[in-house]
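Example 305.
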Amino acid sequence: MGMLDGKVAIVTGAGNGIGRAHAMELAKHGARVVVNDLGGSARGDGSGPAADTTVELIRRRGGDAVADYGDVGDHEQAGALVARAVDTYGRLDVLVNNAGIVRDAAIWNMAVDDWDLVMRVHVRGTWSCCHHAAVHWRGRAKAGETFHARIINTTSGAGLTGNFGQTNYATAKAAIVGLTQTLAIELRSIGVTANAIGPAGATRITATMPGRDQIIEPDQVADDQWEPLNPANGSPLVAWLASDGSSMVNGQVIRALYDQIIWMHGWRQGAVVASGNQPWDATKLDAILGARLFQTGVEALYFRS
Ligand SMILES: NC(=O)c1ccc[n+]([C@@H]2O[C@H](COP(=O)([O-])OP(=O)(O)OC[C@H]3O[C@@H](n4cnc5c(N)ncnc54)[C@H](O)[C@@H]3O)[C@@H](O)[C@H]2O)c1
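Predicted structure in complex with nicotinamide-adenine-dinucleotide:
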């Protein structure tokens, strides 16, 4: 009995790298998987049948998968992707939004088209797939069905802490966190959780960075072999988040780096100053904020002028 037996999952961008690893891991635990991939380059140029390779790998290992070649950034194609899961397997339980591209440059060199395409794939693509999945789940809930369903989105260290040369990508990956936290609020009452993972691995995306030209595809590493840069290292976390056992985890950001699973805590309130119910005076803020608040670290400070 597999921990995901009976589940139907979509993994976007599953033709290569981390997405391929997620799709194979979900199938290994019994899920039937829709393997989506547009099949273009790491910069998002072109298209192709990359999804077929992953489907073939899953089937060869005894799993059940079907390919989808849609562009997640296209709202109608994202809808067709969710429809493919429902038409092929009768339902959708797990949506893993993983598709991604990079178009790096320092902001003064970045073309506006590179901003637009990165935002389109990551932010609009994640949102569109979530939208269509949410319509499906809300329909089932309104019909009286109770169920567990899962959204697992993909953020990145760039979106959580920033990274030189990635104003487009970092903005997109931070936006995905805000989207995930809001989905967690909107969908919890119908049994859907939404979380974001921050994975890692030597993939086509990291190979675009200077000095990091190694690419490891997950099927090149044996199941029992340890490889620190294996894109599959975070996939067991995805399988667990996809399972019914993860119901208590909602709206969270979890990184999977090398052999670590890291629960991220962000945007917690630090030190505070209050004006004492009177308007602030900008000319006094240097003394209050510069000399006091930002010198105090995390210690709470209540200021009365
Ligand atoms: N590799 C890392 O270290 C790392 C770190 C943090 C986050 N990520 C994220 O992990 C995800 C997977 O990236 P990867 O590193 O495996 O790179 P990858 O290039 O191997 O995989 C990304 C896949 O997404 C597909 N894709 C791109 N645009 C698409 C679209 N519009 N519609 C459908 N599919 C599309 C690509 O064809 C590709 O197969 C991305 O969201 C990436 O930002 C990767």
